[in-house]
Design goal:
By secondary structure, this protein is an alpha+beta fold. The chain is 30% helix and 30% strand. The protein is built from six helices and eleven strands. The strands form three sheets. A six-stranded antiparallel beta sheet has the order 7-8-4-5-6-9, with helices on one face. A three-stranded antiparallel beta sheet has the order 1-2-3. It has a two-stranded antiparallel ribbon with strand order 10-11. It starts with a helix and ends in a 7-residue tail after the last strand.
């Protein structure tokens, strides 16, 4: 009887561990990671399922979800820019902030700022956030995404970046921040 329980216990352990033993055949590769950038035939890029220069803000909501803020961000002497901001975006194993940008005319930005029901200073105290009116949101969602910034919640040092992604195309240093742009070809 002891042998039966020992074999039963061993079999239970093997069955419990089975999903973890052979990950190569059954598991799908991670997707949606910030460095998984597809270069399209026309030279534009696609990342996070968004085709930069083609996808619209409404597409971003459909693909990324509606847990975001949509506002005009402007410094005191600027017209500002329209930003769709995901404060808690998860990209594969990484989490961080995701900001989508558009290229809207100054005239539209001014009109939408004037229609804003709420404006408040950002945490820095230097820029203001203008919340869009209900009527303007529907117009704004049709705007094309022209830029995207993902800011990981983890600070990666240069050594880790080089080991994981290889040598950058170039190195940009600005205001004490180092940018290592790497463009992967699909």
């Amino acid at each position: 009887m002891k042998i039966f329980f020992a074999l039963f216990f061993l079999l239970a352990i093997i069955l419990a561990a089975y999903p973890f033993l052979d990950q190569s055949e059954n598991s799908e590769p991670l997707s949606g990671l910030p460095w998984q950038i597809e270069v399209m035939a026309d030279g534009s890029t696609q990342v996070f399922g968004l085709h930069i220069g083609n996808s619209r803000l409404a597409d971003a909501i459909e693909i990324l979800g509606d847990d975001m803020e949509l506002a005009i961000i402007a410094a005191p002497d600027e017209v500002g820019s329209l930003e769709m901001y995901y404060g808690h975006y998860k990209a594969g194993l990484l989490s961080g902030k995701l900001i989508l940008l558009t290229d809207i005319s100054e005239q539209d930005l001014k009109r939408w700022r004037d229609n804003s029901p709420i404006s408040e200073y950002m945490a820095t105290g230097k820029a203001k956030k203008y919340t869009l009116s209900e009527d303007d949101i529907y117009l704004v969602l049709d705007e094309v995404i022209t830029g995207l910034t993902f800011i990981p919640a983890v600070n990666l040092d240069e050594e880790v970046i080089l080991a994981r992604f290889g040598m950058p195309d170039n190195r940009i240093e600005s205001d004490g921040v180092i940018h290592l742009p790497i463009r992967k070809k699909a």
